Amino acid sequence: MISLHPSPEVAEARTRGGAIVALESTIITHGMPWPQNVETARRVEAEVRRHGATPATIAVLEGRLHIGLGDAELDRLGRARDAAKLSRADLPACLAAGGTGATTVAATMIAAHLAGIRVFATGGIGGVHRGAETSFDISADLHELAQTPVTVVAAGAKAILDLPKTLEVLETLGVPVIAFGQDDFPAFWSRSSGLPAPLRMDDPALIARAHLVRGEMGLAGGQLVANPIPPEAEIPAAELAPLIGTALEEASERGIAAKQVTPFLLQRLFELSAGRSLEANIALVLNNARLAARIAAALARMSAGTG
Ligand code: PSU
Ligand code: MN
Fold first, then answer.
1. Residue 62's domain spans which residues?
2. Which residues of 115-135 are buried (b: 16+ CB within 10 A; e: fewer)?
3. pLDDT digit string (tens) for 133-144?
């Protein structure tokens, strides 16, 4: 069995059967610029604690799989310019080689499951890219949701992706896509994508119960909870559409491919929107951390027989 390196607070929470929320690290190294990345990571952890759960930010540092990072480790990762982006295919290779890297949604789900953590909060998941009919660019995150039993709370997917195709692939893979508190699938910066979500739940305890029922039925895979951005932080889709167009054109002109596509588009959008997209991004991650903590707390109560 691979050895895990839990932080002291995660080790303590595991012993007591307390609620734990996993957090990814690619959002820190490849999703936001320094220093807002480290500041946001700390605020997200604080938000999880404030809502009664223990945060576990996951990353690989010098070949060790960390489940929960200390303050200095978080800072080092946030400043690192050479951290690898680790998805399902890269994670074991990085551990074998003694490398350092940040985990994507897919790799964070794998690590969380190994550590017995059932709930994970992030900003946006990877999905089917626009033009996937020729590029075949579909994030490994979608396949991970189909095979690893972790409930992932995200604000939907960014409009850099093809949202209808992303929902189709999730349906094909049998992944429950649950909009929280509304009928529409949210679109990251906007509360609505204009597309109906396949499922809707308004109560974190129901989401926790649905997670348990999947396990009881022996079904592989997790759930995607799509939590709309708070109304005051929303950016109208029309405002970002031209910027997304520019970023996509640049990516194609420069021949950006494979693992570089998502980080390139995210960084260009932050630059092109002069930080506006970053502020919204921070607000929605905090909002997802809150909901994930409530789901994790409900799961912990149910597992202890007190819920
Ligand atoms: N989408 C975002 N922010 C992110 C990512 C996606 O809005 O930070 C990151 C996540 O770590 C996600 C990864 O798992 O990008 C997906 O990369 P790819 O599309 O290469 O699978
Ligand atoms: Mn890809």
1. 4-303
2. bebbbbbbbbbbbbbbebeee
3. 999 999 999 999
The single-letter DSSP state of residue 185 is P
Q: How many domains does the chain have?
A: 1
Cα–Cα dist 166/130, whole Å: 10
Residues with CB under 6 A from ligand 1: 24, 26-27, 31, 87, 104-105, 123-126, 139-141, 158, 259, 262, 266
pLDDT digits (tens, 9 = 90+) for 111-133: 999 999 999 999 999 999 999 99
Query: What's the whole-number average pLDDT of the chain?
Result: 96
Kindly tell me the burial class for residue 284, based on how many C-beta atoms sit within 10 Å of its own C-beta (0-12, 13-18, 19 or more).
Answer: buried
**What's the pLDDT band for 236 if we cut at 50, 70, 90?**
confident
Q: Rounded to an integer, what distance in angstroms lies between the CA atom of residue 12 and that of residue 270?
A: 38
CATH number, domain at 267?
3.40.1790.10
Rounded to whole angstroms, the Cα distance separating 63 from 304 reads 34
User: What percentage of the chain exceeds 70 in pLDDT?
Assistant: 100
The structure tokens listed for 165 are 């195709």
